[in-house]
Amino acid sequence: MNQDTICALATANGVGAIGIIRISGEDAVSITNKIFEGKDLEAVKTHTVHYGFIKDNDEVIDEVMVSVFYAPRTFTAENSVEISFHGSPHIAKRILEALINNGARMAKAGEFTMRAFMNGRIDLSQAESIADLIASENEAARKMALNQLKGGISQEISILRNDLLNFTSLIELELDFSEEDVEFADRSALNQLLQNLKTKLQSLIDSFQYGNAMKNGIDVAIIGKPNAGKSTLLNALLKEERAIVSDIAGTTRDTIEEVLHIKGTAFRFIDTAGIRETVDKIEEIGVKKAKEKISTAKILLYLYDEFDSTAEEVISFIKEIYREDLKVILLHNKIDKLVDREEPTLNSFDAQLKAELVPYYTDTIMGISARDNINIELLKAELANYVEELKTEENAVVITNQRHYEALQKSFNSVQKVEEAVSMGIQTELLAYELRTALEHLGEISGEFTNDEVLGNIFSKFCIGK
Ligand code: GDP
């Protein structure tokens, strides 16, 4: 167990009704007791709350409530105290100073969670989920982080690891008896296991696209010639959303106006503020610049006005800009101007585009009127559909973390190598080696195999006090 006793402000740094300072470590209770007036905290039961005052030398600093938690049933698995005080940053500073003068030290970013991990209370993926929970800004992100905290991913990984581990032991047993040329591990059963592992790993890997989209939102670029109606479309898309957010005091319109939530997913309209200057000049700045602009986008809304563009123009632009992982939605805007308004979805102009561009976009082309709000709901449904298509099985574990994603890919590659080795009748040593590697990569996710650099990287992203 770590001997230092650490302390930090756990609530946001600013004025609030109540602020909370947490203290963790062997001496958490005894140090707090030295600055507490009201009762002897070292004589109280664990998991109890006490009223009193915090003093620095003889000066009373604040009236507080102190919660006392003795190890091991605490977040860090160490002795822990939480002091609830009147939420002034100045009082927080005074209490922290008093704690430090009596033997505690300031916690580093993420140090409480790191201790929870080091002391075996949670595994690494659970620790990461805590950062995700704190950062969650929508329902989908919150739910996925909570699932991970409850051990969803850990369980899935541990099942896979156990399967692998059993086999690795058999293979290693063969190594011990290598002189005698016996096979303990039935090769066809091993093959079966490998297939099974690959399927499961692949489905976790596949879930990342969806998980990442749900967690971080999806970037959408709106592009088109000047006056195609880009700003009008953005306004039409964001109309209801704005009405909702304008009720929230203190929200900045600028940033919020660019994000649209559909069915719990955040769609971010890239650089909306800049779209006027930059994208309007697409002909001047050229395709290269446009490509840069949309390089992070997953979806491109390309607007055109039939009376102001030629089909060739649209076609060549889309062909230039095409990327395999970009969903292109062609929007024939201003259909209110068409005589044939009864049938607003496709006309001969669109049909020409469609015929030429089928290999380049996911067959989505629709007529809209940004100004008159025609088919805007249909467009929103199409955006939501993009997310639905990413979804794998319902209720399955979803990977949301880049680090886990990479570890899973590495495991998959190792499993694939084992498979090749088995099919080529390769020596047991090599098999054992690849199996071990696959195991290690899986172990990286839960933190069974890790190093200081990885840990430092993960926990330094936490806030202080977490
Ligand atoms: P941007 O330059 O692409 O951002 O285009 P704007 O959104 O500023 O629109 C340019 C002009 O087209 C404005 O006068 C809009 O009112 C008009 N406009 C935009 N959408 C429509 C539409 O669906 N129908 C019609 N008739 N006019 C539109």
UniProtKB/TrEMBL annotation:
Coiled-coil regions listed in the entry? none
Q: Which UniProt keywords apply?
A: Cytoplasm, GTP-binding, Hydrolase, Magnesium, Metal-binding, Nucleotide-binding, Potassium, tRNA processing
Please provide one cellular component term from the Gene Ontology annotations of this protein: cytosol
Where (6S)-5-formyl-5,6,7,8-tetrahydrofolate binds, per the record, is at R22, E82, R121, K466
- Could you tell me where this protein is found in the cell? Cytoplasm
Q: Which GO terms describe its molecular function?
A: GTP binding; GTPase activity; identical protein binding; metal ion binding
The superkingdom of the source organism is Bacteria
The note describing how and how many cofactors are bound reads: Binds 1 potassium ion per subunit.
Entry's EC annotation:
3.6.-.-
**Protein residues bound to K(+):** N227, S246, I248, T251
- Chain residues that bind GTP: 227-232, 246-252, 271-274, 369-371
Name of the top EC class for this enzyme: hydrolase
PANTHER family for the chain: TRNA MODIFICATION GTPASE GTPBP3, TRNA MODIFICATION GTPASE GTPBP3, MITOCHONDRIAL
Q: What does this protein do?
A: Exhibits a very high intrinsic GTPase hydrolysis rate. Involved in the addition of a carboxymethylaminomethyl (cmnm) group at the wobble position (U34) of certain tRNAs, forming tRNA-cmnm(5)s(2)U34.
Quaternary structure and interacting proteins, as annotated: Homodimer. Heterotetramer of two MnmE and two MnmG subunits.
Per the similarity annotation, which family is this?
Belongs to the TRAFAC class TrmE-Era-EngA-EngB-Septin-like GTPase superfamily. TrmE GTPase family.
Task: Output this protein's name.
Answer: tRNA modification GTPase MnmE
Q: Which organism is it from?
A: Bergeyella cardium
